[in-house]
Design a protein that fits this description.
alpha/beta; two-stranded antiparallel sheet; 4-stranded parallel beta sheet; 10 helices
Length: 243
Amino acid sequence: MALITIIGRGHSGTRAISHTLYTSNVYMGSMLNASGDLLPPQAMYAACRVFARYVHWQGGLNWDFSALHTMDIPAEFTDLLHEYLKSVLSNDSAYRGWKIPETTLIYPWLVRLYPEIYYIFWVRNPRDCILGHHITDDLADFGVEYPKTDDLRLRRAISWKYQYDIVKATPRPAKWIEVRFEDFALKQEETMQRLENFLGIPLARIIMRADSIGRWKSDTSVNYYDFLEPMMREYGYEIPGTS
């Protein structure tokens, strides 16, 4: 039996791949919301807060995740994770999985506990990603220290960077693929073939809307911060003033 999870910050378009997997007969849990999140989320949220105790904030926008790769994983965390995933782990379907953006906040320990999982890292231009509210906007709600600010957009951009950093700081598992939401929407067939080759199963096609891409272009508020530039360059997103 194969286990699949989706890594990616909220508002990265992860519902698209969750719905794709569900429509493709991948068991995604006993209860899902409209976004394709496995519910209820409370045990996952609590696990995130346990994890955050061991993240060392170095000041500014820098965090040290190194201890998380070698320390003993607390039983409290493992119990909470298993409680959250009980409907998935107890199911006997050939392909099972789950999606909830907060999975990204525990990613280093997830890789250590489940190195055999198929990991799908879902990326979206942060300029689109920070336009709307998500529960992970304020990292302090999950026990993560960061430079507090009342600027909502800045808070979301910091959350985006933190979640990018936590993924990049973690040794890559054996079964790993990175997918840009923009490619899934605009080059669906090509991207779906990559995912099918990765997972080894046929996938259903869902309807995608091109107008979900580049919404920041009609936004009238701040949607870019200089500290996002290295990550945006890595994934081929347009940097203001360079076109």
